[in-house]
Amino acid sequence: MLTLDNVCKSYALGSRRIPVLTGVSLKIEAGEMCSIMGSSGSGKTTLLNIMSLLDMPNEGRIFYQGQELTGTSEAIKANIRNRVFGFVFQSFNLLPRLSALDNIGLPLLYRGIGKAERRRIAYPLLERVGLSDRAEHLPDTLSGGQKQRVAIARALVGKPEVIFADEPTGSLDAASTKNILNLLDELNRETSVSVVVVTHDPNISTRYARQIVVDNGGVAIRKDHLKNPRT
Question: pTM of the prediction?
Answer without folding.
Answer: 0.88
